[in-house]
Task: inverse folding
C-alpha cells in the first residue's frame, strides 16, 4: 500500500534546502573528536616503517639482528617474513567496466605491490621493513639499526623519458613502462583539422602535488580474544573495500573483519585507496595477539602517501573563422609513479572530461599512464578533471588570442545549450555507456560569471596601464563533472525503542557533513524532527555492504538510498500505527515523529510508543505478515547514470612584475549541483575545493630531482596556503535538478577544485600580455612569474589553412 511520502508538504516545512548548522561541529570544536590516534588500546604495540632511501635499487640483504636486540622491540619484519601473503592490489579501482572494455579495449597492466619490498625498491619511501615495539620512540630507534644493503639501479622520473626504449623498466615482467593506454575518436578529426580556418597546437603540463590532509594516515587493529573477530580502525574513505582487502590478504571470512572509519581529518582521495600499512597492521595484531597501532608522520605523508595531478597534454584545437570549435586532438601522458594503483580512473576521467561544456563534433584523444621511479599517483579531489580542464581552458584562451576574440566570447559561441539536454558527446563514460550530460545551463553559468567579474571595468583599468609595475589580468574557466559514480551505496534506517531514528550509511565522512545532510534527507522522507536522527557512516557492521566516499558520489548514492529507505520506513510506521490505533492507514499522517488520525478528534501514537511498547510485556507486536514487526529498512541505491554538475569560474588578479607576486583581487564561482540539501554545507565544500585548487595553482609542488629524490619533503619547502592566502569568494549557483535520481541532486565535493588552476593561469597570462608570456604550467610562484617576464615562453604559432592554401 502506498502512503503519503511526506514530499507534498510545503517547502517551508522541509528540511532539504535549509542551512542547518552542522550537528557534528559542536563535538569537534570542543575537542571531542575521535580520530584513529585518539582510540586508546591498552597494551598496544606501535609500528614504524623503514622506507627506501633509493628511487630504484636492488635489495642485496637486510640484517635485522641489532634492531631485534634494541630495547622494547617485539618483532622486525622484512619482505621474507610476509612473503606468504599475497601482494597488494586495489582490485575494485583496477577493474575495467565490461562495456568500456568491449568498446575501447584499453590496456591495463597490473603491478602488484609487495607488502614489504624484498627483491628491489622502485621509489623513495617504499616500505622495506616493519618494526613493532612497546612505543613509537623505541620503534623509531630500532629502525636506525636495520642494515639494508642496496645496489642502485638506473632511475627515470620523467614520463616522456620513461616511454623511451632506453629507459630502465620498473617491472621486469612488463614489456615497457606503460601501465594503461586508451584511445578514442569521434567523427572525422583529420578532415576537421584539414578544413579548419585556425589550428593552435600547445603543450601544457599539470604539475605534481599532494592532498596533504591535516590528519595523516593512521590505522589500528585489535583481535577480540573471545570470538577472534578482528576490528580495524582506519582513516579510510572506503571501509568496505578495506575490509574485503584485509580478509583476502589474511585468508579470513569478510564477516570476521570489522572496519570502522573513525573521525577523519581530511581525505581528498588520498585515503580512498588501499595501502600496505593497512594490511600489515591487522596482520601484526593477529600474529601477536595484541593491539597494534600506526600513524604516519608528515614527511611520510608528503613522500610516501599517494601523489597526484602530474600530466602532460599535447593538445590541438581547430576552429572556423567565427571561433566555432571543429575538433580537438590531445595526447595525454599521466605519471603513475612506481605502481599502477587505480588503473583507468584518472586517465579516463581526463579523457571523458576534456570536452567540458563545449560542443566539439570531432575528437581524437589518446591517454597513456606511465610508470616512473616516483611515489605512486592516485585520485586527488577532482581526479583527472583539474588537469584536463587546465589543458582545455588554456587552449581555449590560446585560440581566442589567435582569433583576436575575447576569451569569454569564444566560450559562449561553443557552449552546449540547455535546450540540447540530455546532450550526448559521442564519447563513452566510465561505466561504458554513451556519455550524456543529463542537465545544466552552461550559457547561464558563463553569463553570471562574466557579469560578476565586471569584465568591462577590468578592461578599462588595463587600458589605463600598469600601476607601478602591477599588471591586472582576468581569466575564465568552465568545467563539467560527472558525479554519483556507482555501482551502489547503502542506507539502513531503524526506529529504536526510544523512538529515535538510527540511520547507517556505507559512506563515511571526512568533513562533508553527512551527519547533518543525510539526517535532513531522512527527516523529510520519514516525517520526523531532525533532532531525532542519529547518523553512522563507514562502519562495516552497521552496513555490511558499501563502497565509500569518493568521486563526488556520497550525496547522490547514499542520499538517495537514505531517501528511499526513509519512505519505506514511513510506510511501515503508518501500517503499524493503523493496526495499533484501529484506523485505516490512508486516514493517518506522520508529522514531527507522531502518527495522527486526519480526523481532528482521532487518536495518535508517537514513534517511541509505537516502537517501544508491545500490547503485553515480553510479547511481539502482532502483524498481518506483510511487513514484519521491525520498523527498519535497508536500501541499496544503484544510480542509472551520472548526474552532471558544472561550473564557471572567473578570477581577477594583479601581478607585480618586480616581485613576481600574484594577488587575487576577485574570485567568482558560479556552480550547478542540482538540488542543494544544505546550502551552508555546499558553500563550505565549494570553498574548500577552491582553496586546494588555489594551493595547486600558486604554491604547491612536489619536486623530484633526476635521481628520484623528493626535494619538497617538509612544509618548509612544500608550501600549503593558509586562510590568509584564500580570498573571499563571490559565489552564485544555478539549480538544474538531475533527472538521474529521486532527489535531483548532483555531487559537489570536488567541483570547487577543478577550475582554479586553469582560471588563475588564464588570468596571469592576461596580466602578462605586455611581456608576451605564455603560461604552460604551474605553480605560478614568484620565481616562475619572474622567469616568464625575463624570458617569455614563445607562443606556438597558430596556422590558418587559408594562408596555407588548403581551403
Result:
Amino acid at each position: 500500500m502506498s502512503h503519503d511520502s511526506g514530499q507534498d508538504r510545503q517547502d517551508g516545512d522541509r528540511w532539504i534546502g535549509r542551512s542547518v548548522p552542522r550537528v557534528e561541529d559542536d563535538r569537534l570544536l570542543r575537542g571531542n573528536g575521535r580520530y584513529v590516534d585518539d582510540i586508546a588500546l591498552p597494551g598496544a604495540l606501535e609500528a614504524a616503517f623503514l622506507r627506501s632511501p633509493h628511487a630504484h635499487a636492488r635489495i642485496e640483504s637486510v640484517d635485522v639482528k641489532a634492531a631485534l636486540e634494541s630495547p622494547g622491540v617485539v618483532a622486525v619484519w622484512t619482505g621474507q617474513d610476509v612473503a606468504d601473503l599475497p601482494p597488494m592490489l586495489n582490485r575494485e579501482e583496477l577493474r575495467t567496466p565490461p562495456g568500456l572494455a568491449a568498446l575501447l579495449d584499453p590496456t591495463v597492466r597490473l603491478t602488484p605491490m609487495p607488502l614489504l619490498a624484498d627483491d628491489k625498491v622502485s621509489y623513495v619511501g617504499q616500505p622495506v621493513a616493519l618494526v613493532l615495539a612497546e612505543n613509537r620512540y623505541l620503534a623509531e630507534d630500532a629502525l636506525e639499526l636495520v642494515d639494508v644493503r642496496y645496489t642502485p639501479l638506473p632511475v627515470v622520473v620523467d614520463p616522456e623519458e620513461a616511454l623511451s626504449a632506453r629507459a630502465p623498466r620498473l617491472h621486469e615482467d612488463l614489456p615497457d613502462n606503460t601501465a594503461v593506454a586508451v584511445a578514442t575518436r569521434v567523427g572525422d578529426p583529420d578532415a576537421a583539422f584539414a578544413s579548419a580556418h585556425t589550428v593552435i597546437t600547445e603543450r601544457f603540463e599539470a604539475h605534481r602535488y599532494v592532498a596533504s590532509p591535516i590528519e595523516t594516515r593512521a590505522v589500528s587493529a585489535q583481535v577480540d580474544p573471545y570470538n577472534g573477530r578482528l576490528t580495524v580502525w582506519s582513516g579510510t574513505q572506503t571501509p568496505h573495500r578495506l575490509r574485503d582487502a584485509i580478509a583476502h590478504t589474511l585468508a579470513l571470512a569478510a564477516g570476521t573483519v570489522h572496519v570502522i572509519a573513525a573521525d577523519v581529518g581530511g581525505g581528498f582521495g588520498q585515503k580512498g585507496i588501499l595501502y600496505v600499512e593497512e594490511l600489515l597492521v591487522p596482520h601484526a595484531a593477529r600474529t601477536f595477539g595484541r593491539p597494534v597501532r600506526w600513524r604516519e608522520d608528515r614527511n611520510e605523508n608528503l613522500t610516501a602517501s599517494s601523489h597526484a595531478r602530474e600530466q602532460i597534454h599535447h593538445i590541438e584545437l581547430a576552429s572556423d573563422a567565427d571561433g566555432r570549435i571543429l575538433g580537438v586532438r590531445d595526447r595525454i601522458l599521466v605519471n603513475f609513479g612506481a605502481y599502477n594503483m587505480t588503473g583507468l580512473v584518472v586517465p579516463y576521467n581526463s579523457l571523458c572530461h576534456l570536452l567540458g561544456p563545449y560542443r566539439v563534433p570531432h575528437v581524437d584523444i589518446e591517454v597513456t599512464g606511465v610508470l616512473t621511479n616516483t611515489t605512486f599517483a592516485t585520485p586527488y579531489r577532482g581526479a583527472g578533471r583539474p588537469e584536463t580542464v587546465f589543458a582545455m581552458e588554456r587552449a581555449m584562451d590560446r585560440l581566442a588570442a589567435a582569433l583576436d576574440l575575447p576569451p569569454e566570447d569564444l566560450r559562449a559561441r561553443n557552449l552546449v545549450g540547455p535546450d540540447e539536454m540530455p546532450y550526448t558527446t559521442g564519447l563513452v563514460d566510465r561505466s561504458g555507456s554513451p556519455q550524456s550530460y543529463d542537465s545544466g545551463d552552461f550559457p547561464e553559468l558563463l553569463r553570471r560569471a562574466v557579469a560578476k567579474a565586471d569584465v568591462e571595468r577590468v578592461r578599462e583599468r588595463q587600458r589605463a596601464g600598469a600601476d607601478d609595475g602591477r599588471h591586472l589580468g582576468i581569466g575564465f574557466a568552465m568545467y563539467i563533472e560527472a558525479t554519483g559514480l556507482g555501482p551502489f551505496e547503502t542506507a539502513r534506517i531503524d526506529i529504536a525503542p526510544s523512538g529515535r531514528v538510527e540511520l547507517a550509511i556505507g559512506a563515511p565522512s571526512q568533513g562533508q557533513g553527512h551527519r547533518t545532510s543525510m539526517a535532513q534527507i531522512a527527516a523529510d522522507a520519514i516525517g520526523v524532527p531532525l533532532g531525532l536522527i542519529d547518523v553512522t557512516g563507514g562502519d562495516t557492521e552497521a552496513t555490511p555492504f558499501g563502497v565509500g566516499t569518493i568521486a563526488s558520489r556520497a550525496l547522490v548514492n547514499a542520499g538517495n538510498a537514505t531517501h528511499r529507505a526513509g519512505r519505506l520506513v514511513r510506510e511501515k510506521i503508518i501500517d503499524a500505527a493503523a493496526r495499533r490505533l484501529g484506523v485505516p492507514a490512508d486516514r493517518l499522517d506522520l508529522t514531527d515523529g507522531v502518527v495522527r488520525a486526519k480526523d481532528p478528534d482521532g487518536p495518535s501514537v508517537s514513534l517511541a510508543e509505537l516502537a517501544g511498547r508491545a500490547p503485553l510485556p515480553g510479547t511481539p507486536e502482532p502483524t498481518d505478515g506483510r511487513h514484519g514487526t521491525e520498523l527498519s529498512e535497508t536500501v541499496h541505491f544503484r544510480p542509472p547514470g551520472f548526474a552532471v554538475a558544472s561550473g564557471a569560474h572567473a578570477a581577477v588578479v594583479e601581478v607585480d612584475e618586480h616581485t613576481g607576486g600574484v594577488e587575487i583581487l576577485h574570485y567568482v564561482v558560479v556552480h550547478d549541483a542540482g538540488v542543494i540539501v544544505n546550502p551552508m554545507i555546499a558553500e563550505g565544500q565549494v570553498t574548500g575545493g577552491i582553496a586546494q585548487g588555489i594551493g595547486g595553482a600558486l604554491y604547491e609542488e612536489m619536486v623530484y630531482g633526476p635521481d628520484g629524490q623528493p626535494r619538497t619533503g617538509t612544509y618548509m619547502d612544500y608550501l600549503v596556503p593558509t586562510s590568509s592566502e584564500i580570498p573571499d569568494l563571490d559565489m552564485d549557483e544555478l539549480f538544474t535538478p538531475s533527472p538521474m535520481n529521486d532527489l535531483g541532486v548532483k555531487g559537489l565535493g570536488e567541483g570547487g577544485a577543478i577550475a582554479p588552476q586553469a582560471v588563475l593561469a588564464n588570468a596571469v597570462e592576461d596580466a602578462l600580455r605586455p611581456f608576451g608570456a605564455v603560461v604552460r604550467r604551474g605553480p605560478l610562484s614568484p620565481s616562475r612569474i619572474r622567469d616568464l617576464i625575463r624570458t617569455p615562453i614563445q607562443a606556438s604559432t597558430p596556422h590558418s589553412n587559408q594562408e596555407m592554401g588548403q581551403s
Remarks:
- The chain has 21 helices and 30 strands.
- Residues 86 and 249 are 6 Å apart (CA to CA).
- The first strand starts at residue 45 and ends at 51.
- Confidence is low (pLDDT under 50) at residues 1-10, 803-807.
